[in-house]
Amino acid sequence: MRELVRPARLAPGARVTVVATSGPVPEERLQAGLDVLRGWDLDPVPAPHVLDRHGRFPYLAGTDADRAADFQQAWCDPAVDAVLCARGGYGVQRIIDLLDWDAMRAAGPKVFVGFSDTTVLHEAFATRLGLATLYGPMAAGVDFIKNERAQGHLRATLFAPETVRTIDSGGSALVPGRARGVTLGGCLCLLAAERGVPGARPSARGGLLCLEDVGEETYRLDRYLTQLLRSGWFDGVHGVLLGSWAACDPYEQVRPMLADRLGGLGVPVLEESGFGHCEGALTVPFGVMAELDADAGTLTLDEPALR
């Protein structure tokens, strides 16, 4: 697995567009997130349809066409330095094939930030554009607007990425050891849902795979992992980082299943890595070469996440 192109870091005054790619966005949370970004001396611009609600499907922020158009317009606008997702939920799978990837490639690299449902976009940026991305807090997320740790780590990653080359999660080794590889991953259920679709990543070979999820019963998490194992997607993976399992069964129930499904891979596995759907979530760059030390609980990037 090759390292991907790293976009440029942000500077004071950079314009960032906040887009609703998935679920509906509460206006008060959006305004709070925009205030945080303004406090960083950024110029945040909400996309035209960021506060829309779909007329028939209440779990979507506006129509597929409008959500896709907002994302496309933001990415292809030369005045925009970064595109930040407003929140997760569900909906990216419905717009991914409505985007003009040739036009987005021609627009050149820029910063993309999101997590959860935007896992599908992270995968598409990797496979279609060869671009490194940031799996981190979203602008209207309650876990972002009310948490200084999440804000501080994302801000450092955006403006001074050399200061956060080592991500020290405080986690521990589910399987001990050290490994090197290119980071990738995201929300487990979405990685499983991407199997078999055109343009999907064929495997995690050569990678350090980051996994997390939210609101799933243990047997469902088992199902997703088993699907990925049976399909050969884990073949050749170098290491695994496990993030949060918020609103899932208690971790003492989830942990034995994770050990059962992942322990046979013969690679280091770091648990409770501090990213995903959790308080104070850390920002993890995808598409960069790094070293995982499961015993020390660290992920160390070879180079800063952004140029």
Helical residues, percent? 25-40%
- Read across the widest sheet, the strand sequence of neighbours is 6-14-13-8-9-10-11-7
Structural class given helices, strands, pairing?
A: alpha/beta
Mean pLDDT: 97
Percent of sequence in beta strands: 15-25%
Structure in words:
- The model has no long low-confidence stretch (mean pLDDT 97).
- This protein is of the alpha/beta class and 307 residues long.
- An eight-stranded mixed beta sheet has the order 6-14-13-8-9-10-11-7.
- The protein is globular and about 50 Å long.
- It has ten helices and 14 strands.
- The longest helix has 13 residues, at 27-39.
- Helix content is 31%, strand content 22%.
